[in-house]
Each structure stands twice: as C-alpha cells, then as structure tokens.
TrEMBL record:
GO terms, molecular function: DNA binding; sigma factor activity
Keyword Transcription regulation: yes
Protein name: Sigma-70 region 2 domain protein
Superkingdom of origin organism: Bacteria
Entries under SUPFAM superfamilies matching the protein: NTF2-like (SSF54427), Sigma2 domain of RNA polymerase sigma factors (SSF88946), Sigma3 and sigma4 domains of RNA polymerase sigma factors (SSF88659)
SnoaL-like domain residues: 236-334
Ranges for domain RNA polymerase sigma factor 70 region 4 type: 160-209
Gene3D superfamilies from the UniProt entry: 1.10.1740.10, 3.10.450.50, Winged helix-like DNA-binding domain superfamily/Winged helix DNA-binding domain (1.10.10.10)
Assembly: Interacts transiently with the RNA polymerase catalytic core formed by RpoA, RpoB, RpoC and RpoZ (2 alpha, 1 beta, 1 beta' and 1 omega subunit) to form the RNA polymerase holoenzyme that can initiate transcription.
Transcription listed as a keyword: yes
Length: 353
C-alpha cells in the first residue's frame, strides 16, 4: 500500500504491521509444509516472490540473461527435489541463494567467462568495414531493467561491474557477490562453497582488488542522479535523433573525448573521438539504412533499442540494444549488443513499421 493509502486507512479495520508479519509467517510455514509433501503449487508460491532477484544473481554470476534463466530453472528443480532436506535453520531465501549459487558455479566452470570486445584486443583507429561476428566467443549480454529495483540492485547489474566480475575465477566471483551484494557472512559463504572461512576471506581480498581496478567511480546510478531526468532524456533523445538523421555533428556534441564504441559479437572496437567518429560516419550514420529507436533501461543504465530498415525492406527490424555509459552529461561508452534475440527480455517487438 502507498503512503497515501496508509494515511487514508488510519482507523480502518486492518491488521497492524506485526500482525501482518505473523500472518505472513503462518502462510509461509503452511506452504512450506505443503511443498515438502509434494505440492508444487505451494512451492511456486514460495519461490515466485524471489524469482526476479534470483535471476539477477544468476546474471551477475554468468553475464548472460539466457544462461541465467537456464541456471535459475535448474536451481529451482534442484531446490524442489532437495526441499525435504531444508532444515529451516536459515531462511528459505538464503537456502535458495545457496542452491542458485552452486548451480551457477557448475555452469561457470563448464562454460567459462563472458567477454566484451575490449577484452580481446586493442582498439581500431579506423572503421573496419565488413566486420564479421566471432561465434566462438561467449559474449556478455545486456540485462533488462527490473521494475522497482532498488538503487543498490541497479548498481550491481551495471555493465562495468558485471564485466569486471567476469574477470574473476568462479569461486571469487561467487564469494564477492554473496558478501558484497547479498550480505552473506564469510562463514556462510564457506558453507555454500564447501571451503574454509580463511579461503573465503582470501578470495574476497583478491576479488575486491580486481573489481576496484575495473569499475569506474562514480557509478552510473550516482551519475544519473547528478545529471537529473531532464538532461538524461536530452542525451538519450539526442543520441537517437543523431543516428536517425545521420547527423555526425550532433552525435559528436554528446560524446567524451575518450569515448569507446563496441558491438559484440563484432570483435573490432573503437576508442577516442577521432576513431569513433570515423566509424560512425562511415557505418551507422551513412551506409546501414534507416534507424528507429526506442528508449529502454539496460543494466540499470540509459539505453536505446535500435531497429534498422535496409534499402529494400518494408519495416524496421530489431538490430541492437545500445547501452550508454555516461560520464557527467556526456556519453563515454556505447555498447551495442547486436542481435534480435536480446529484444524479448525487454518486452520489445522484433519489428516496427
């Protein structure tokens, strides 16, 4: 209920906060007992409120929306089968995170880490025409905004953070996320990972050092708050309009001097205003076709979904999710995640008129 709703309800015949909590605990216990007896509907009621945050945790671990969904489904099957072994010593939420983390560790160890083009080699100084996708690389994927996500939750799915933790071994990645994001103690993490508390503390020390070197300050959440919604809309609209009109001058006005532009799964990427402008003027601003853009939020950041219509096409088709990383009120990074497969997670159509 909203604050206004609470004020209007003063004196109404409704349970108080403590009474509601007790009622919720009783319903939770009843569903837990039913689920242990094989009631899958009761199990669904238990886990459904936690599904979004568990999916976000799997994404942080794996760097892929699709891998995260697969891992979550696998984890929930494991949890369903292992529910009779849940003793109730901790919360169901903590236990589900334990199951999900172990599932993600299995996946991470078998598939390796996700990468961006900047991880594979130096930047290109001029536009590479006819660049072809690298299909043997596991690429980082964008993460669709979760409605109502808290400030801290958005920070921990920002592109720089997720990309940084991908550079950690799987056990360090899990330890860092459980400790820094979810608030597990070192002793609890040791139990999750079947290791010692000393090993966890050592892993945390190494992980923090790697991430601190790779994650810029301030975070995108802080940057977006500092520039305000009005200026953010101007930047996003200006970027989309410049692409749609083929206006290089308008695009340049929005970029930092050291801007980067990468386009997974294409391996080549560009750093610095000269290289980025050379690429932009020779490819998206002139030779691709007609663009249309839809503002979205990806990884807690400003983004636009780009639709492209070729010269002989009759409609604009899904092309890329462009995630914009800002420094101040300028664009410091454009990461264009190419592929129509990304659009479904954002609830977007695959074509526009």
């Amino acid at each position: 209920m909203s604050l206004l709703g609470n004020l209007l309800c003063t004196g109404c015949d409704r349970p108080g906060r403590a009474e509601s909590s007790v009622m919720g605990d009783l319903l939770h216990s009843d569903d837990l007992a039913r689920a242990r007896d094989g009631d899958d509907t009761a199990f669904t009621r238990l886990v459904e409120p936690l599904r979004r945050e568990l999916h976000a945790h799997c994404y942080r671990m794996l760097g892929s929306t699709h891998d995260a969904e697969d891992a979550l489904q696998d984890a929930l099957v494991r949890a369903w089968r292992g529910l009779p072994g849940f003793t109730g010593r901790g919360t169901l939420r903590s236990w589900l995170y334990t199951v999900a983390t172990r599932t993600c560790l299995d996946t991470a160890r078998s598939r390796g880490r996700r990468a961006l083009p900047v991880d594979l080699g130096p930047s290109s100084t001029h536009a590479v025409l006819g660049d072809t996708p690298l299909t043997d690389v596991a690429w980082l994927e964008p993460f669709a905004e979760q409605p109502g996500a808290a400030y801290e939750q958005r920070e921990t799915v920002e592109l720089a953070f997720v990309a940084a933790v991908q550079h950690l071994p799987a056990n360090q990645r899990a330890a860092l996320l459980l400790f820094e994001v979810l608030g597990f103690s070192a002793a609890e993490i040791a139990e999750v990972m079947d290791t010692s508390t000393a090993s966890v503390n050592s892993a945390l020390q190494r992980a923090r050092r790697v991430v601190a070197e790779r994650v810029p300050v301030p975070s995108q959440q802080r940057t977006l708050r500092m520039i305000g919604d009005a200026r953010l809309r101007e930047v996003v609209t200006g970027y989309a309009t410049a692409l749609e009109r083929g206006d290089a001058e308008a695009l340049v006005a929005l970029l930092t001097e050291d801007v980067t532009w990468s386009m997974p799964p294409l391996p080549h990427w560009y750093r610095g205003l000269d290289a980025v402008v050379d690429f932009a003027t020779r490819v998206p601003l002139s030779t691709c076709g007609s663009w249309r853009h839809v503002p979205v939020t990806a990884n807690g950041q400003a983004a636009v979904a780009a639709y492209l219509r070729g010269d002989t096409a009759v409609e604009h088709t899904a092309w890329a999710i462009n995630v914009l990383t800002l420094r101040g009120d300028r664009i410091a990074e454009v990461t264009s995640f190419i592929g129509a497969a990304h659009f479904a997670a954002f609830g977007l159509p695959t074509a526009l008129p």
